[in-house]
Amino acid sequence: MKKSNKVLFSVALSCALTLSLYSNKSYAANVKNSTAPEQGVNEVSQGDIVINNSINNGLSSVTIHWSIQADNVNKTVIDSFEIEKIEGTMPIELQVSQFLQDANDDQTGRNDVPGLNRYHNNMADNLSASWNSADIYVGNTKTEVVPAQTKFWSVSGQASAFYIGKEIPVEVDKQWQAPYTAINANGDIFPDYTDSWSGKKASAGLRTDWTKTANPVAWSSSARNTAISQYINLYGDTKWDWSNYQIYHVQPIAYGGTNDISNLIAIPYQQYSAITAWFNKY
Length: 282
What we know:
Low-confidence stretches: 1-32, 167-171
């Protein structure tokens, strides 16, 4: 079939993390808002793109579902996409490419370009499919499994569908970009936590290229009491029972972190234990 007889349609999907923060302060106990991952495969990010086509006076579409997962049993990271739904006219060709990405931070900085990161040095090693009519059916899937490393992981991708019909202006390879999520070498997702009082996140400033220091700073009960006093001076008296809270170093002192209040966040002991367990496989 000639190129001019193909009509290309694509739709982009932009993904963002939604965080639940408490906007109004109260004297209630702080609330744990993330838990340690369950054993097995855990969802990191997922989404749908719908490739719409108005053709022959009707609406046709193909829905592609994409995802990235972490498996803490097999210690792997999994990315995949599949045809989730087909409505109306069947396309004659469907092209999907997905790029596994890794970085040492969450790629939200002003100078970061999330889409430039690539896990594979060779572009041909990325997950891709060029499906013709016989291969275009609900459930057709492409999957990639790689060893877990302590990195921030993500995927980006693009999809295109070709139809037979009246030619209209073409949209070429619209893209999607998942947020970056920290996963350790065991395949565990970082059990993030947001302090509802200060608004600080345990993952704020987290990097995956820290190395252990030979001379970590000292941490003592006196340093803890100083940190609590600084917290109250900065954010107000929470009326918490501080015996239920640990002072967590965002950059652990074992990896060169300091006792400066900017590096500290108040975390319930249960959540602190989950984060500490994550760093044990850092």
